[in-house]
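2 proteins. here.
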Amino acid sequence: MESTLLCVLLLLNTHINSGHSEDDDGVAKAVLTIHPNRSQIFSGESVTLRCVIQGGGVTDWKYTWRKIGHSDSSSKRNEHEVSAAKISDSGDYRCLGSHQQQDSKRSDVVRLTVTPLPKATLTVEPNPVFPGETVTLTCSVESDSSWNYQWYKDRNDNVVSQSGRHTITGDTLTINGATVNEGPYWCQGARDSRPTSSSISDPVTITVNALPVASVSVSPPALLYSGETVSLQCVIPGYTDWRYYWYKNNQHLPDETSKVIDITIPSTQIGQAGQYRCEGNRVSRPTSSLPSDPVTLTVKALPVASVSVSPQGLLYSGETVSLQCVIPGYTDWRYYWYKNNQHLPDETSKVIDITIPSTQTGQAGQYRCEGNRVSRPTSSLPSDPVTLTVKALPEASVSVSPQGLLYSGETVNLQCVIPGYTDWMYLWFRDNQQLPSQTSKSITFPITQTGQYRCEGKRRDHPQRSQPSDYVTIIVTAFPKATLSVEPNPAFPGETVTLMCSVGSDSIWSYKWYTDRNDNVVSQSVRHTITGDTLTISRAAESDQGLYWCQGEIQSRSISSINSDPVTITLNALPRASVSISRQFVLYPGDTVTLQCDISDYTDWTYYWFIDNQQLPSPTRKTITISLPDQAGQYQCVGMRRGRPQMSYYSSALPIIITALPTASVKIVTPQGLLYPGETVTLQCDISDYTDWTYRWFRNNEELPIQTRKNIAISLPDQAGQYQCVGMRRGRPQMSNYSSALPIIITALPKATLTVKPNPVFPGETVTLTCSVGSDSIWSYKWYKDRNYNVVSQSGYNYIEVSHISRAAESDQGQYWCEGKSVSRPTSSQPSNAITLTVKDSRPTATLSSDKEEVFAGDSVTLSCTVESPGWKFYWYRHRPDSTPVTTTSGYSYTLSWVSVSDGGQYWCRAGRGDPVYYTLYSDPVQINITERPVAVLTLQPNWTQIFIGETVTMRCDIQGGGDSDWNYRWYKNSQVVIPFNTKPEYRISPVYWSNSGSYTCEGIKGNKFSKTSDAVQLTVSDQPKAVLSIFPQWMNPGDSVMLSCEVDKTSTGWRFSWYRTVPYRARLPSLSDKSYSLQPLSDNVTSEDSYTLIPAGPTHTGGYVCRAGRGDPVYDTLYSEPQFLWSGDLQPSVSLTVNPNTTQHFTSKSLSLSCEEKGNSTGWRLMSYRERRVKSGCVSTWRSITESTCTIRSLTTWYSGVFWCESGSGEYSNAVNITVNDGDVILESPVHPVTERDPVTLCCKYRTIKSNFKPDFYKNGVLIKNETTGEMTIPTVSKSDEGFYKCKSGEGESPESWVTVRGDKMFSPVVSPGSSTPVLVGVVVGLLVAGVLLVILLVLLVRYQNSKGSCFNRIFWPPQPQSTNRDPQQDQGSGYTHQQHGDANIYDTINSSDNNDNDVTGASAAGPSHVTCTQIQLKKLDNKKKAGAGSVDVTYAEVDLQRKAKAKKKRETPNPPETDSVYSLVKTYTVPGAARPVDVTYAEVDLQKKNKAKKKRATPPEADSVYSQLKPRSCPGP
């Protein structure tokens, strides 16, 4: 108003002086001034620019404002206010006025200079801090001391006030006991003089570093035993000058201040020995550490010795008992024995024998034991004492059946009872004379053999005799007579009659009861109860009268007594009661009646009354008086007396019947419906049946004395209440029942409700007043203001419930209320509550604020627009306030969710309400600055794909695009916070466990701003891995290299590998968990490669190998691999393994013998096997001596399939044998050891039982090589190409595959020394000798060929494991064949012949291969081989086989033997094991070897021919 008046005065002044302008041209000029006109304006102060137009004669100017360098702005106001001035508001300003087509001259330039506020400086000491320390924050503004200071935390509107933790003193804020990172903190100065405030200081965050954490290490770390001493060490990282504090069970140990303390466990302590923890203090910061986690010392009880006794049970004199001291857990105990607490120094064994003296009885001593050993635990707890108790001989006793008196005609059984044993022989005596024929435990005889009897027992084992029994006397007793008694007699009906029968004083009798005649037996019934010697008749009736007698009997012995004398039971009748009534007319409630009980015969009755079968507790008189209606019902009586009869019969029931009184009722006659104050109500009392009633009225249980009519009128609200009535008359009934109470309830008049919107109201707004009465009637309303008679509308009541005040002014303020009136009931309402309408004096201004001004993209920003009264709708603007609103909200806040950089800028708001809309002034602008959000990047170190339990993992969180480095960090696992606040970017987990597995993310935190959450890194923690070792090849070829490969989980990396060889268990070497082997590191034990090569592999390399892997720093190791073995099928020089039967395949249920032959000195051997992918003991797991060289498996199962070998105690390995046990019907017999090149090999296909038409096919590496054979296949000269897998197959089944291994032939690779000096004479003599022997052998063979059949000659050898190569399946078919190899110097010729022998056993043709004879002569001339400096050497091999074959014709070809100088002959006899019948087999081996003739001074040796002849009768053994 003041500014408007000022403008009017200025305009008038201009108009008056328009003709006196100093400007000659009469143009108006603008004059610009600054208010207040201060020399210095500070940031945040308000300043007004005022533009005054001088001249022009116009008052309604439009003003144009210009800031030099900026665009113009227009306004109808002549003032431009700069509120909360900023530095950017500094500059040169001008203005001008515009009116229609006329403009004033621009004003002179006025310079506005805005000076920045002095900035507060905030210092923190100390920072960072440790938990619990005090932090001091100091705020200063320049050097002026006139400032006061305001403190802020987290955000600039969160003022820090004085509290328990925050102390503000002048320029200092003290924070006591910091525990977590706090902040950021700001400060700002304030004072009375200008500038009144400083700018806010830069924020400071207080960083709290974690205190060092103490930890307790325990030595020894394993379980403790009672009596031991354990060392505890307090480890606190980071510093060395700690003073240590120790606690046990949370109690301080003041005497313990060292880093290491020793705790001695009491000898009686077991279980938990306490929880120990430590912490440290020091002089410098940090002054303390965090306490360690408690370490619980768990004490394991020492092993407890126990004594076992053999034999168990009681001892008898002269016996010997063995005591054994059993101490669990270990086997290296030294034993100590005690008797009656006295040490027995001579007894140190685990088992001792104690002989009981022959005279000993009772206790023979208490024995206990204990143990000592070298390792922990060094001792055991002593055993409980065992008491040896010597028992006396068992005592015999005689039992008699039947027991008690014995009667004539009975049979007696005597039994001899001797406790403890059952193998007694019994001796019986009568009158001290032994009964020789009676040796049984029990004897039976007739009662006529009276006398004194006893027994005793004998047995072979101890005890051999019992003590004799006491004497038992057998006598005869006469039959007794029964006696009967009855009580009472005579009896009255209902009484209980007891009949008692007795036979002497013996309790073994049972009784039989009779009535009226002997065959009428009384049996158990509802009223007849038989218990022992008593018959009870309950509730005696007339039918119970008559004669009764009894008889005793012993049923088990068929004994009966003499009948009792009869007794007659008589029954007398009871007196009868009756009930009479005193009044004989209709009974009404309120009447009194007298009842009388009459009983004849006796006068001393006590009377008992009953109503509805329920006894009345107190009345015992003859008459009783009852009041109606409470005591109505059916009445009976009965009499009781002391003498007999004790009671009468019950009377018949007498019903007491009541006639109901008439009932009164009250009703409202008028008005109907709800009752309101001021109305009159008519009530009426209705009573049926009679008309001569006098009425009595009651209100709230108090009688209304004047009202005696049927209808009464009452006025509301004074006479409201609960109304009842009752009627009275002279005749019977004299009154009615009271009516039910009728409540007269008053309903309050409805109350008018007034609402005023809006309130308070601003000048010019429209106000709506609404009056309503909550009912269905049509109401008219009257309005009041300030006092009751000040009616707003002069028309009185009107039917419009809404009133409007348009363009509210100050005069409209006051109190308003209203009331309603209606034609129908209720006719008026209560007035409403008064409401005060307030009219403000000016238009409101909206205030805009933001919860944050510096934000990241993706955050949300909330703008709040506040106005001092409610009911507004809010309008939001961006960039310019006069633009179209960005949005409109009904609430005061507007949230920008997931903001982007483009959302930044200036924002305004204003509010509006009503219709038409009434707007507030615009708010000041708020600047929102938005930048891109930094990104957190999480890396895992080491970056392995798989982590194992026990390893160490470090996660690092880097903030990219975050500017400065003052970030804090928050860590998540599976979207759950694990570390809410950390100042370091690394999160270390050491060691990791399964529970640490999960998906990890991180984010950066700076004040109330957050970075983007990192991508998830999956941490998977697996069980400690176990290395897997493989060996290739697993069967060694001498000279070849062998590769060991060690593999850990394929998804893991970074491993280094350690290699070991298994050796017999040794305590100081690393060992496998089951202690089956210790581990000896190989040379170059640790490699970065996952393979290790043995070059070349030789016999010393056979045995077991183990590997494991490690990685990281410190090194994390896997578990040791399962041992894998490198085997050799070749016989070894130290230990060799042989099997019998000598083949690789065996049928189930057959037997197999494995023999270890040790050739050197060793601590013993053990047979091992590799079955089901595990190392197992072959027969025994212990080391065995040389004398125990054979292990026999008596019944094979498929479980025994696997590789077998022998190990010596010194770590040497034998050859290995691959055994296959087949539960099918077909197996292939093949060599168990490697075959030498050029040797013949015979493979036999066996059927589980003998079968004449068994014709299997042979396969090599799955390819058929020979079909429909007789059961065997021979390879005459094997070579390396013959190695492979062989099997046989027929219609009856298929054998497993077996590998045949071929070794190079060293014997037949002759090396001739050029300098040989062997005398020629020796060669000639030997040659002649060999030729002679050869002729003799040939003659013998021819003779044996004519005299025997069933011989198949072949070379005997000890084979190895399976293998094979392809061969032409047609080349060996036919019963007789000739095979020659062309193109080389080898000759092979087979001559087959067969003759029938009349001496053959009948039916022997079914015996299979033992009936086949063949003669086979093989001449093999080996290839010429040359060596440097040596001449050519011819070697010829001759093999003669005589084989009997089915129906084969004889063919004989005699090869020309080569010349020879050296002859060697070996003749062996051999019997085929397991043949179907005895077979004579002769083995002959003839070696004709022509050795070099050594001649002096001759450079080239002469040619040498070697001849080898072999004669072997052999066939495949039977099944």
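next one coming up
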Amino acid sequence: MGTKTQPQLAKENERRIRANDKEFNAQFKYHNNYIKTSKYSLFTFLPFNLLEQFQRLANFYFLCLLVLQLIPAISSLTPVTTAIPLIGVLTLTAVKDAYDDIQRHLSDSQVNNRKSKTLRNGKLVEAKWSEVQVGDVIRLDNNQFVAADTLLLSTSEPNGLCFIETAELDGETNLKAKQCLTETIELGDRHDSLWNFNGEIICERPNNLLNKFDGTLIWRSQRFALDNEKILLRGCVLRNTQWCYGVVVFAGVDTKLMQNSGKTQFKSTGVDRLLNFIIIGIVLFLVSICALFAIGCAVWEGLIGQHFQLYLPWERIIPKDYIPTGATVIGLLVFFSYAIVLNTVVPISLYVSVEVIRFVQSFLINWDEEMYYATTNTYAKARTTTLNEELGQIQYIFSDKTGTLTQNIMTFNKCSINGRSYGDVIDLRTGELIEITEQQTIFQNSNTNNRPSPAGGAAIAPPAAAPPIILVHTAEVHAKKSALVVTSSSSSSGEAQVSSRPDFEHSAPPLDAGEKRLGLKHVRYSASSRSQEDDPGGLSPRMGLSPSIGNDERRSSGGFKRSGAGFMQRQLSRTSSCDKALQTVDFSANPHYESDFRWYDRTLLDAVRSDEEHSHVFFRLLALCHTVMAETVDGKLEYQAQSPDEAALVAAARNFGFVFRTRTPNSITIEVMGQLEEYELLNILDFNNVRKRMSVILRRGDSMVLYCKGADNVIYDRLHSGQEDMKARTQDHLNKFAGEGLRTLALAERRLTEQYYNDWRSRQQEAALSMDSREQKLNEIYEEIESEMQLVGVTAIEDKLQDGVPKSIANLQNAGIKIWVLTGDKQETAINIGYSCQLLTDELADVFIVDGNSVEEVEKQLRQFKESIKIYNRFRPGGFDPFDRLNSDSNMDPLSVTMTQTSAFMQESNLPPTPPPPPAISVVTFSAECNDLFGDEKRSEGGGTASIVVDESTGFALVVNGHSLVHCLSPELETKFLDIASQCKAVICCRVTPLQKALVVELIKRAKKAVTLAIGDGANDVSMIKAAHIGVGISGQEGLQAVLSSDYSIAQFRYLERLLLVHGRWSYYRMCKFLRYFFYKNFAFTLCHCWYSLFCGFSAQTVFDPMFISVYNLFYTSLPVLALGVFEQDVSDKNSVDFPRLYTPGLKSELFNIREFIYSVLHGAFTSLVLFLIPYGVYKDGVSQNGFIVSDHMTLGAVVATILIVDNTAQISLYTSYWTVVNHVTIWGSLVWYFVLDYFYNYVIGGPYVGSLTQAMKDLTFWVTMLITVMALVAPVLAYKFYLLDVHPSLSDKIRQRSLKKIHSRASSNVRRTASSRRGRRSVRSGYAFAHQEGFGRLITSGKIMHKLPQDFAFPLGLGTKKTQALHNNLNSADGSSKSNNASGQHMVNNNTNLRQNQNQNHSSMADITADGRGTGGEDGRGSVSTDDMSPRAPCQDLDTINL
């Protein structure tokens, strides 16, 4: 007894599968491949759906009321008043649930009915996916989805390789390689051999780890280890492989895709949760009132009512023998009677109205043309109708990066070859470096048509022509040389000539000290040119940049004064007079060129075509050192790459004439300038996250070479000595490229001898076969040959952002929303994209990087970051920042703002005073306080209770690596991590798994009680989307898994801005206004019964006609409030985007909360009191002019009801800010409808109140009473509204009052991915880019943790070394302004911002300051600081002293 069978034990501990043996596998009862995501069937729908609906408190409450109304002894209202609305709500909800479930059934059916080729009795037959069983051998063809998790047996490719795309799993569109066991390759595609395959697989139980699989194959009495490289997961697509066979290991819900999908959680809005709480409070209030009235009724019956039984007889069930007992029973019955009468405080029509409003709002989202993406013909879609107002309360956004923020499209942007930089376009006449951010740049002359010059060259513009309009996104003024040089001929002719010159260190004309000191400047300008007076002295590279917003000009060292905006626009206008300056290079001479490839620097193509040696080596390396696969589709050569980065590099080489044609396992063929070259492929030393590089060893003829590409710091450490000058120049270019947010790779080569290679090869094979420390031995062997290399150059590619991403992120941040990016990308890539999309900016005080490998390291880093924040806030409580002034000044010009940022470093003695910098503090000074940082966070310097507050305009950013995030999410560090992260303006988590994404979202939901939104486009984002309060799916290039799991779907990230700031804010605003008015009108209506009870002996007698009570919420007041909830808006959609601060009330739940609810209740109670008492006082003992008595109950009820309807109409008219035709029709139509229905009901049907209202309206008393009552109710509301408008106006009030005056913040200005966000920021040293996983060669399964970035600082507030400070002291002395300010030589070092304002925005690299190794400090151009004295890292990673 109690013993378990072998199958039971196996099921608990391991999974045993035998190929092609159904009987053996059946005993374990594994899941089949059938997928079911639907909730109901035809037979279970009605009972299950009703059970689910009655679990909602409101529905159950109304069901209880309906039961009470069926008891005649206690009900004074007909059951119809509750039954009809309740049935309507249940039916409406059931129809919606049925529709949603039908969609799930259709989706399940589509997946389950996909076809898969399966071996049955030795024959290949087509079977549905749902019929595939564990242990089946299935065949996959090229471009076919994998039906289930499968062990790869054989493939069509040599060495058992196959290639898959995992977009549905991890969101990556790049290809990955899988390789079967060498022992099973022999099975091939022979069906008899595959059918006879009887291997037994022992593996792990189903789990959600995408990158891990442990198992063993027992076959032919041998055991073979199985790992993740031999498994094809469900959801993958087979690519570049004709066919492959595999045996099913996990099926259906056991597959890793389904294990990662997460459970669908029931989502409700914050308004819903508040409403539920309020409903409970109202029910308790109702019970209290009913109990009070029940006691009052019992007392009244015991003292007074017993004497009037002749007129008011007691019911038969009431005992009459003992009066107290009878009175008590009457009181008990009256308790339930009042519960029925007063139930209209929360009528079921509230829930009907809420559902209708949400339903219509969803259609408004679906119909919004502003969120229509024409490229894919995709509209935004609200996939759920219950969460609209939650869009207006989002506090945290969790976003994927690849495919969500970026297009996942890489473009070859710039490069450096043999110390020369290529890719820049410059006008040497003006010193302007023009940054191209559009694929095609358009020049348009606004007033004149250019005519061809006689020489056939550039166009001739008439001298009097107005400056042309330039439709370019960015422009930079660069007082340095670059690749494309525009020189001007005689000024009278107006002709412009283009000359090309390589970017040598000596190619630029001499620059004086002022120009060199100026370095790189960036400005932003509008498209339309303002008319400016001409520059009398000709154009100069110097520019005047204002140090503050109020100052439009500054004095340069040469004594010039320039208007910043006008001067820049004049320069730009003259630059644009030559169209050739920005024409793309023509590659059409190359038959394999790509028409969409854009390159603007002609000098590189000229170097290639002139057989310049270094450029040939550079592109030959790109064409050979990769793992890209080539195939010909419809006669066109196409590439399939493991990463978009590799594809971009190989495509660049292709366009420049080095075409990768084909590869075999042992050779690579390229076409160089029309000539085929075949190389023998000896080895691929593949990429992984630890090596950060890949190499190929090739032989052609008698020559043998190793080509290597990888992270610049890794390559630099492996170069031979004697190339210091080239390394320094290339390092300058690397810093410049990384500063622009480009993804960089360094390239190197090494010539090998036959003897050396043969010796190395034998040792490499020995290490590969070693059973002990194989990985370590291989790495040592690789290190040996990847050394003593010659530097070739650097590539810089750009991961294209989606349109409008920087502006959207800036606007959302300015609205008060915190944005976290959760990505599987490398740290360097994520940081670069963070800067590109304005998530990270130079206004940040610092960017913290958490990359510890242990709990202790992570805790130490978090402690240091906490200390940084504390010190920063201690010495900068106000936070002087240009953006503070921008946000507070409504007349700010984007140009002035940019100038302010750019010139913050270049302050002179005659400029307006700025806040004095805090004293320099050594690390040692405050390091002793570390132990107190997490102990008492509220203790301030003076012993007060001030909490740490970060300046929102500056703030910090946090970057966390995936392996460190594991420790951050642990219970012991969770609180500390949250404490740091919550004080950061942006957080980026790199190398995170799908499950970690969901855990981060759950952590914020649980710990911060914040409303979260997750947005992604791949199946790897599904868990995150389901975990967040709101899930948004982007219908992009990575399948529809994210969209199918989402609550809302959009086509581009930029539409999220409109979804939240417009539709979300409007939905929240409308719902809150609707609820406030709804509770007001219902309390005003219901509490009239309470006041009347004081005059009717608490008998539960109603004031109004029972029919009026039944249709009050259904016919008389429903349509106006519905129109309010659907169409109301305080400001237009444009202003909602332009003024993101309008979103803030939703973050704080200011528009509807307990306070607002109590206000609505008190307002309703006051209204009901006035409504009842004034008519009661008028009509009590009243007599009409004709002598008729009008003091009857029915007349009073009809008069009060009519005044109530009129007051409702007046109040909602005051509530409405935005009038449409629908509002007019519903509001005034409902007033007319009341009189029509009252007449119809009383005269046509014959109601009990027939004639009451008609007779009352014939008397002047009725009209005067109504006028006085309505005025008494409306006057206080109007007075309060005018008081708020004049004394405490809201932002929306100000916008309306000032006729939509433009008070633009930084987010509403046209933030683009310009050089300000790229050149002017501090950058990590390396912006290298490479594939995420191992490559296509012999797959190297090594460590998955990235090396830390080169960091030698002891504290995160890195500000630059003393050497860097000395450099800037020299700069200051060159400026001539340091005599009065720079006593210590350190005052210009900006606090904690890594010299972002001075170093990076005045020179993009050290080469901009030092030419030919000379400093720019002295007047003769020589300084005491050379490039050798400078740290090769970015300044954010150097620290000797903290200057705050």
